[in-house]
């Protein structure tokens, strides 16, 4: 994996803070993605680059079950979301669309927005600020789902 820049957010980050409900009326993720994290960082969508990371605290992605929340992050090219813990529905929606979500208990307290990070998903580690952190290593079947672009893409490939 490549080195990316960290964009750090707080505990209990709600899906409405990722993409506010009024933008769900837009016709597609491409039009929605420019409004990601707008209430917390109005310039987030201009600053984030493909391969960057979103880092959060406890209960990342709580709130409504909108699949557009992980969808806009993937559309912006976010490489992965790393947090202390995830709301179950956000976690599931992320895997479904092929956005890696990694539980890493210690990293969020020791990094800041702008720090650089490297994710080694297959090893279950993250490197940042000269330190290596242990993270939850995804089971092989989940990594395969992510590698194929998400659950639907994976199931479609199995049918052929």
UniProtKB/TrEMBL annotation:
<keyword id="KW-0456">Lyase</keyword>
<comment type="subunit">
    <text>Heterodimer of LeuC and LeuD.</text>
</comment>
<dbReference type="InterPro" id="IPR033940">
    <property type="entry name" value="IPMI_Swivel"/>
</dbReference>
<dbReference type="InterPro" id="IPR000573">
    <property type="entry name" value="AconitaseA/IPMdHydase_ssu_swvl"/>
</dbReference>
<comment type="pathway">
    <text>Amino-acid biosynthesis; L-leucine biosynthesis; L-leucine from 3-methyl-2-oxobutanoate: step 2/4.</text>
</comment>
<dbReference type="InterPro" id="IPR015928">
    <property type="entry name" value="Aconitase/3IPM_dehydase_swvl"/>
</dbReference>
<dbReference type="InterPro" id="IPR050075">
    <property type="entry name" value="LeuD"/>
</dbReference>
<dbReference type="Pfam" id="PF00694">
    <property type="entry name" value="Aconitase_C"/>
</dbReference>
<keyword id="KW-0028">Amino-acid biosynthesis</keyword>
<keyword id="KW-0100">Branched-chain amino acid biosynthesis</keyword>
<protein>
    <recommendedName>
        <fullName>3-isopropylmalate dehydratase small subunit</fullName>
        <ecNumber>4.2.1.33</ecNumber>
    </recommendedName>
</protein>
<comment type="similarity">
    <text>Belongs to the LeuD family. LeuD type 2 subfamily.</text>
</comment>
<dbReference type="InterPro" id="IPR011827">
    <property type="entry name" value="LeuD_type2/HacB/DmdB"/>
</dbReference>
<feature type="domain" description="Aconitase A/isopropylmalate dehydratase small subunit swivel">
    <location>
        <begin position="47"/>
        <end position="99"/>
    </location>
</feature>
<dbReference type="GO" id="GO:0009098">
    <property type="term" value="P:L-leucine biosynthetic process"/>
</dbReference>
<keyword id="KW-0432">Leucine biosynthesis</keyword>
<dbReference type="GO" id="GO:0003861">
    <property type="term" value="F:3-isopropylmalate dehydratase activity"/>
</dbReference>
<comment type="function">
    <text>Catalyzes the isomerization between 2-isopropylmalate and 3-isopropylmalate, via the formation of 2-isopropylmaleate.</text>
</comment>
